[in-house]
Model the fold of this input.
Amino acid sequence: MSNIKVELKKNQVDKIKEICKSFNNNPGELINALHKVQSTFGYLPAEVQEVVSQEMDVPLSKVYGVVTFYSFFSMIPKGKYPISICTGTACYVRGAETVLQEFKKELGIEVGETTADGKFSIGCLRCVGACGLAPVVMVGEKTYGRVSPEMVKDIIKEYNE
Amino acid sequence: MSDYKLHLLVCGGTGCKASQSELIYENLKKEIGNEGLSDFAQVVRTGCFGFCEKGPIVKIIPDNTFYTQVKPEDAKEIVAEHIVKGRKVERLLYTDPVAKKTAGSTREIGFYKKQVRIALRNCGIIDPENIGEYISRDGYEALGKVLTELSPADTIKIIKDSGLRGRGGAGFPTGLKWELAAKSPGNEKYVVCNADEGDPGAFMDRSILEGDPHTVIEAMAICGYCIGADKGLVYIRAEYPLAIERLKTAIKQAREYGLLGNNILGSKFSFDIELRYGAGAFVCGEETALIHSMEGGRGEPTLKPPFPAVSGYLGKPTNVNNVETFANIPVILTKGAEWFSSIGTEKSKGTKVFALAGKINNVGLIEVPMGITLREVIFEIGGGIKNGKKFKAVQTGGPSGGCLTEKHLNIPIEYETLVAAGSMMGSGGMIVMDEDDCMVDFAKFFLEFSVEESCGKCTPCRIGNKRLHELLDRICKGNGAPEDIDRLINLSYVIKDTALCGLGQASPNPVLSTLEHFRHEYDAHIIDKKCPAGVCKALMTYEIVPENCVGCTACARACPVGAITGERKQIHKIDPKLCIKCGACLERCKFNAVIVN
Done:
């Protein structure tokens, strides 16, 4: 499933079990449970999925199937400051592509990758619904509107200090 | 909205929040407090006003003053001038881009003139986190009326008579859908609200949930009463944290007021609502896929029949409507079917919310009566094309809709007319394109979307769209062959005819509609190897105009691949074989000597 081997500590396993239990280990709540687990761990490596599978009594293949189906779930850790560039239609028409290229160039990583220092990762998302501010970039929870390629350096700098 | 003489409404929608509207709200409150006017003027954080282009927005009622692009530091002046002295702050008023006149109130603003707000009636007017404000605007009156005066069958009849059709895309008559679910045998049924607004560029559902969450709760309870369900589920995108928060708050308040829960308003009817989160899959907007996702699985669609009305969530009869459809229900029941059906056209009743975006002056959310023309929407409400450019096309219906052109501008907007013109209503996204947009590239952009979002279950969509994308990519790179046009057309029809769900069947629409209306652009790419709009990089060539070149060497120094040669004070030259078309030379040249063909 993934090359990186993750050793889960006992308290981490307990945490996952606790989350699954809060959904009554109900297989119908698998997606809600995965949301919660991901927001706790930051991502969903194979080892985490194994615990969820056992607790909720859902075959591991199905958990993996769900995790890989939805773009919101990730099996690789995101950066400390995840950068998401909206590539919805409204942002695309107003130049999101050039902004994305600039981020890739500045950070030297591709979409879906994380910088070596673990600080930044680049992702694309489809429409945050702030089309009036297109093109839109999100860093963590913060939204930047009307972003131009020239602004990219300054945005990164904000988080490098 | 009690005894206050003045209300300062601050937009708290996602767009305005991203431009510091929260701080504006805080500052206004502070300033009003400093002036000792806290009993006289009230600051309210509302939902979206729709005019996102000019955000953040502060509206003052009762005089309807509309301040645009307000900054947090403007709060002091607004309070000192407008609230204390009664003088409007001229510099923050909206200025009409054509007439160059400032608008004193919203009634004078072109963006609002032709709008009729039914689904958005409370957005930007009430505080969405205060159930009292919703109730004061006739909220929950419809639920009360239905539970005390009407039978489920009577209620369904009113919805049927109103002519309301689903606002999520296909336009299926809502009353009929409810009737089918009501007639399905079974004691356990479900009401589902589809809030998985996946169309990029459409944000009406988000705005309704953020600005008026109670209307959706009320409508779902009414639907539950009609079909015999005691449980409702809202399937909402995880990308909408603010909408989720406001909905949660609203559900909690409704429970406290006895408007959700057991024996609502003393009747025998019980109903409650739970949230289910999407996880970023466009296909989950399709109702069968949505149901599978709610059950905790992969959101893959299944063949219909059986329809969800017969076998839906957990195999039980389920009624699925989208947010905007639900938002119409309470008003129809308080004002009557006749009132609703008097708005709109013969086959499309009421209003539709559209999200205007792209190369248009007034980006935002609008609600207009059915039957209005595209021209009125784009040029009157939307304020025309940005930077005085020429209108080229408008894409309606999201990624799987079609492009409409100049010649369609006068057709009335209805479900049927849009389909006849080769597009569709969809959820109401409207992306405007100008002369600088390449239609082949645009079709490719949408196919890329469909390829990424295809769930992979059926072959035509999974492989077919991938092939379409490859063909378009080849054409954009200048490697297209004349036969590619026929290949595109044939493959598009195969996908349309054989894909399993609505998403797959509609995915070739952008290709077919651009081929029909912009065939010359395809030909230019394939035969002349040129991109008329100057978008497709591979088809561009950079050249130096000898007459303008002074030999300053700036371009040669800027070129990252050493493609430019020439001595100081000599005319320079670009080697097209080495050039990577990055545009660095064009940016650097001060003498207009570099041109792009």
